[in-house]
């Protein structure tokens, strides 16, 4: 669920007026939006039309795009960001498939609940124990997950490092149809993670205001350079608690920007304890978080930024 006010904030518009005016001009406007309390909730079909015609974010063509989430440092917010972006993209009508490659299975639990135990994971698909479609679990409208089990720890024993990228591309992503694939990774530079990054159209890397997460980013960027990665790389600042904090992380990251070619998301994620509260819920409550929490607007901005870049990539390719 996304509201007109969240969209306005995420797009940096002064008022809801242009959004509501656009809605008024649509022939079937009553099907595309409804009032819930004081909020104007927008349906996915609304976004498709609005984003295509918006001057600020003319998101036209996003299909079969792969985004991997990376940092060599643990606990920076890779999985939380993946979950939030997945909810926003699917809420805007983009069919989104998330893949939890991390044996810890946090993304699986953030989306499906603390106590969820998956039947199949990527490992089972690689071993031929199930098809990729059998491993897929529906989370909500437009949102699906290939969950993780501890067996993912043993993928490198099941498939050789050389074969991994091709297997991922043809046997996993190639067998599915989605607008957006989001692949969450654990904080290592394992063969599995490098294979995931190598097939990505975009690597979304999450950075906090501390030297170890910037170092973690440097490790990823150096490795990708060695591998000749050609997709785009975007950094998101997470757990930011004010201007000073933002200035510090920007300063920390500047030498890396000068050395490697990557962009910074124009919006950042503020510290929001609502994220932790939701993750501790048994029912996969990241999907039903308080709509007015900070992370809702922040993650919507980041999602728009990511979709916008992917849309531009598609235009260049055409
Ligand atoms: N913006 C935020 N505000 C407050 N807490 C956050 C925020 N982002 C993430 N967290 C918290 O930080 C912790 C780590 O988050 P998360 O699991 O997303 O990190 P990660 O990078 O995926 O970790 P790992 O490397 O272990 O996979 C969690 O407890 C989460 O609730
Ligand atoms: Mg994680």
From TrEMBL:
Source organism, top-level taxon: Bacteria
Signal peptide range in chain numbering: none
One Pfam family linked to the record: AAA_31
Domain AAA positions: 65-227
Coiled-coil regions listed: none
Listed name of the protein: AAA domain-containing protein
């Amino acid at each position: 669920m996304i509201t007109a006010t969240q969209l306005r904030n995420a797009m940096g518009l002064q008022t809801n007026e242009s959004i509501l005016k656009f809605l008024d001009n649509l022939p079937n406007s009553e099907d595309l939006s409804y009032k819930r309390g004081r909020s104007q909730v927008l349906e996915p079909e609304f976004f498709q039309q609005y984003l295509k015609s918006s001057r600020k974010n003319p998101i036209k063509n996003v299909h079969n795009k792969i985004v991997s989430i990376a940092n060599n440092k643990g606990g920076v917010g890779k999985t939380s960001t993946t979950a939030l972006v997945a909810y926003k993209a699917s809420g805007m009508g983009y069919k989104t498939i998330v893949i939890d490659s991390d044996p810890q299975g946090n993304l699986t639990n953030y989306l499906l609940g603390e106590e969820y135990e998956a039947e199949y994971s990527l490992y089972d698909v690689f071993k031929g124990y199930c098809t990729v479609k059998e491993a897929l679990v529906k989370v909500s409208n437009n949102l699906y997950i290939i969950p993780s089990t501890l067996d993912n720890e043993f993928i490198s024993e099941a498939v050789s490092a050389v074969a991994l990228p091709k297997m991922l591309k043809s046997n996993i992503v190639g067998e599915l149809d989605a607008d957006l694939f989001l692949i969450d990774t654990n904080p290592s530079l394992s063969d599995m993670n490098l294979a995931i990054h190598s097939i990505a159209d975009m690597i979304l890397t999450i950075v906090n205001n501390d030297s170890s997460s910037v170092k973690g980013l440097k490790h990823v960027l150096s490795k990708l350079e060695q591998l000749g990665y050609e997709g785009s790389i975007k950094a998101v600042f997470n757990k930011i608690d004010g201007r000073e904090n933002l200035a510090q992380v920007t300063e920390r990251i500047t030498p890396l920007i000068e050395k490697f070619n990557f962009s910074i998301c124009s919006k950042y994620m503020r510290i929001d304890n609502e994220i932790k509260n939701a993750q501790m819920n048994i029912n996969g409550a990241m999907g039903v978080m308080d709509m007015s929490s900070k992370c809702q607007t922040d993650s919507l901005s980041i999602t728009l930024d990511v979709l916008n870049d992917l849309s531009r990539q598609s235009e260049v390719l055409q």
